[in-house]
Design brief:
four-stranded antiparallel β-sheet; alpha+beta; 268 residues
């Protein structure tokens, strides 16, 4: 059974991922994982943090001479932005706060801030937001890249793309910048995105992402969804910003978050 664990804060020294249960004898290189990390950093809507970081993985366990050896695979991704935060995020104890450091007490709507502060009795929400940041997904990409390499041994390829934004649906094709089919661009995508930005509450987007695998040139949905549907959706929901999901059925309109309900969180 595969299982993984990630550690590290958004502005900490590094992110760490440990993948347990991978077979021995799988060829894997840092370059393969780095290509997936680079894909994570490009595309529409990426933040300024992507201009600072240039993610690269380092194996610290479980890989020898370019092959997995059966023990847990440990991977480290260093944070370049750590140099700007090392006083604020230092691990050493000390009563004196870094210059300009502020205690964060106001939770952001739609984030883990409020729930985390209540659960851990945190008086400084930075302890929560540093861990729940989207930066943590870099470690997940590294883990996913190893699994993706494993699936390649069976001729299985994993793909994903945006199928709808703000009611504008798409046709097949690929636009690398937006990771969506070409037809959606021809259907007024730019206008749709502008309308979403104008009308949405902070942190609320309406878009649909479709993911599936192909095995030897055919769709391979069944082997994945019949046994582990709950696990698949679980890991999708663990990604910040995911509001709903479905398997083998297109009923997103029923799953789409009602904006009126978003007001509840916004009032907190």
């Amino acid at each position: 059974m595969l299982r993984f664990l990630t550690a590290g804060e958004s502005h900490g020294k590094s992110l760490t991922a440990i993948l347990d249960g991978m077979v021995s004898g799988l060829e894997i290189t840092p370059d393969f994982i780095n290509r997936e990390l680079a894909r994570r950093q490009v595309g529409y809507g990426r933040g300024g943090r992507m201009l600072i970081e240039k993610d690269a993985v380092e194996f610290t366990g479980g890989v020898r001479h370019g092959m997995t050896i059966g023990s847990p695979i440990a991977m480290v991704i260093k944070n370049r932005d750590w140099q700007n935060w090392k006083d604020v995020m230092r691990a050493e104890s000390g009563e004196r706060r870094a210059e300009g450091e502020q205690i964060i007490t106001r939770p952001r709507p739609g984030h883990a801030d409020l729930a985390g502060a209540l659960k851990y009795d945190a008086h400084d929400i930075r302890n929560i937001l540093e861990r729940s940041s989207a930066r943590e997904t870099a470690a997940r990409v590294a883990v996913g890249a190893v699994c993706k390499r494993f699936l390649e041994e069976f001729g299985i390829k994993v793909m994903s793309w945006v199928t709808e934004i703000g009611g504008v649906k798409c046709k097949m094709g690929t636009v690398p910048d937006l990771r969506m089919p070409t037809g959606i661009v021809e259907s007024g995508l730019s206008q749709s995105i502008a309308e979403i930005k104008e009308s949405k509450w902070p942190g609320v987007d309406e878009s649909v992402v479709e993911k599936f695998a192909k095995e030897h040139g055919r769709e391979a949905r069944e082997p994945f969804i019949n046994t582990d549907q709950g696990d698949l959706l679980l890991f999708v929901f663990l990604l910040a910003g995911t509001a709903g999901g479905f398997i083998a059925g297109y009923y997103w309109k029923e799953l789409m978050v009602n904006k009126e309900r978003q007001r509840t969180n916004g009032n907190i």
